[in-house]
Specification:
With about 200 residues, this protein is an alpha+beta fold. Helices cover about 15% and strands about 35% of the residues. The strands form four sheets. The chain has an eight-stranded antiparallel beta sheet, covered by helices on one side. Strands 1-14 form a two-stranded antiparallel sheet. A two-stranded antiparallel sheet has the order 6-7.
Length: about 200
């Protein structure tokens, strides 16, 4: 709705920025919808399942408000998972001489081969996404960063797309997962509230 019709008639620029008008009828939406929230604690078994998918051995160690596997000496693969929901987690292969990754941002260590195909990256990411509960998520493997391919998984919650709930898996030139991050908690359906229309 243009609240500045007078200014528009004078061909003056809108001091509040661009104004948009609907060209036709807007679709009807629901009158109410539930709120989804991440609640609870991440279990040691959830961490073990994710670690196994990432090729990590060892027992998760509770360290402050997080679970941790590996990386005690500052090198080697490391998985860190927040114990409280939403259970944010990060994985870094961090093996000297091969890759130096942190989350979904990686820097090439030199001598990187060709970037793996989207199909190969999806295949490498599949066990990790399954362990993270994102195997049904919408995937995008088109992004390349630092000579590595990133597979981003965006799930639906309550039949609707999400924003900010992406699981990212970074696949190196050898086809190995070298970095990843996401959230382990599954959003739980809460109270229903009226929805405000456009």
């Amino acid at each position: 709705i243009d609240v500045l019709d007078g200014l528009a008639d004078l061909d003056e620029p809108n001091p509040y920025g661009v104004t948009y008008r609907a060209a036709g009828a807007l679709p009807d939406g629901p009158g109410s919808a539930p709120v989804y929230r991440a609640r609870g604690e991440i279990t040691e078994q959830q961490v073990r399942t994710l670690a196994k998918a990432l090729g990590l051995d060892g027992k998760p160690v509770a360290q402050g408000g997080a679970w941790r596997i590996g990386g005690q000496d500052g090198s080697g693969p490391t998985l860190r998972v927040d114990r409280a929901a939403p259970g944010s987690w990060t994985f870094s292969r961090n093996t000297p001489g091969t890759d130096n990754c942190k989350g979904a941002t990686c820097k090439p260590s030199g001598g990187d081969g060709p970037v793996v195909s989207e199909a190969a990256a999806r295949k490498a990411a599949a066990p990790v996404l399954k362990a993270a509960g994102q195997d049904d998520a919408k995937l995008d493997a088109s992004r390349i960063t630092g000579g590595k391919r990133v597979v981003n998984a965006d799930p639906e919650v309550g039949g609707l797309p999400t924003y900010g709930w992406t699981t990212g898996v970074v696949v190196g030139a050898s086809g190995e997962v070298v970095g990843a991050n996401g959230r382990l908690a599954e959003p739980v359906k809460g109270d229903v509230y009226p929805v405000v229309d456009a």
